[in-house]
Amino acid sequence: MSRYHQILVPVDGSPTSEKALDEAIRLAQLSGARLRLVHVVDELSYVNGFESAMNYVNEIIPLMREAGEKLLAHDRKKALDKGVSADCVLVEGGPGRICDHVAEQARRAKADLIVVGSHGRRGIGRVLLGSDAEQIVRHAPVPVLVVRAPEAVARP
To answer: What are phi and psi of 37, to 5 degrees?
Structure first.
């Protein structure tokens, strides 16, 4: 088995993301790696055309940011409780695709591996692989381990 030093894990709070985090923790325990947990605040995921721009900027985005911070803190504690060092990065979505933000964080962290869930919380999933996971696989600067959804989530 390769010796990993830094494993990057994009998290979104979905059951599949949790399963990917569990796998990353297991790999880190085996290899002595550190984890970098990344959550991208996808500012376009909530746009519905009914919110005023000011309401969106002043209320919705701060709530999304706060939820991301709580998620990262929860997932970091989960890793630390299992003896795995972890740091967290909250990325403000802004322009660009989620896969671009994940690839950039992998480069910055000098990650050896990205561990990602096959489907996340965004939109309608693809038949075989969620669109964000697929794009991460295609554009990542390092190898990507894709963790399948738990059985209950994977069924149509």
So the answer is: -95, 130
Backbone torsion region of residue 41, taken as left when φ is above 0, otherwise alpha when ψ lies between -120 and 50, otherwise beta? beta
Residue 125's pLDDT is what?
40
CA angle 123, 126, 129 (to 5 degrees): 115
Tell me the domain boundaries of the chain. 6-154
**Assigned superfamily of 6-154:** HUPs (3.40.50.620)
Note the pLDDT of residue 61: 79
Task: Please state at what angle helix 98-109 crosses helix 131-139, rounded to 10 degrees.
Answer: 40
Residue 27, classed as helix, strand or coil, is helix
Question: Cα separation of 78 and 80, whole Å?
Answer: 6
Q: With beta carbons less than 8 A apart as the criterion, state whether 61 and 43 touch.
A: yes
Specify whether the backbone of 84 is left (phi greater than 0), alpha (psi in -120 to 50) or beta. Answer: beta
